Amino acid sequence: xxxxxxxxxxxxxMHGLYLGLALILNLLIFYIxxxxxxxxxxxxTYFILVAGIGYAMRTFAKLNTEEGxxxxxxxGLGTLIALFGSSIFAFFTFILYKYIEPGMIxxxxxxxxxxxxxxxxxxxxxxxxxxxxxxxxxxxxxxFAQIFSVTLMGFLFSLILxxxxxxxxENPFYEVDKEEEEYE
Length: 184
Fold this sequence. Notes:
The chain is an all-alpha fold.
């Protein structure tokens, strides 16, 4: 009896779940600490993305030694993991901004204002910039933007990580053998 390996989609969903939970935990830790918009939190988000996608690629390549992990499959796997993880994270963010802490968007605007003033922008310019941002600051729009941005970052990190985790198949005729089994 041949050992069946999980499909790429199933594997991406499982590791996307883990990635989403890790991103939620990161946000919760900084939220409870009282600094949810910390630069350190943003850096940890990138680290979690790279570590989660890299770990998933490495273990998938080890599990599927016969069929390998070509660059294109590794890139797709990393992007799917980021998509599933960002969807879970965005759902939690929507709940947080809409129901748990509705004033968090206002706090985010205050932090943005402080950063812009610290960069040397004058008050009129800061008011114009924040006025333009307020139209896009609803929990639903922010959640959708989070799905897009985290998936894009996951894609960019996967472009690089796939170079290191790609693995040629042990059986170079794996696809041909697989097709022959289907016809029998």
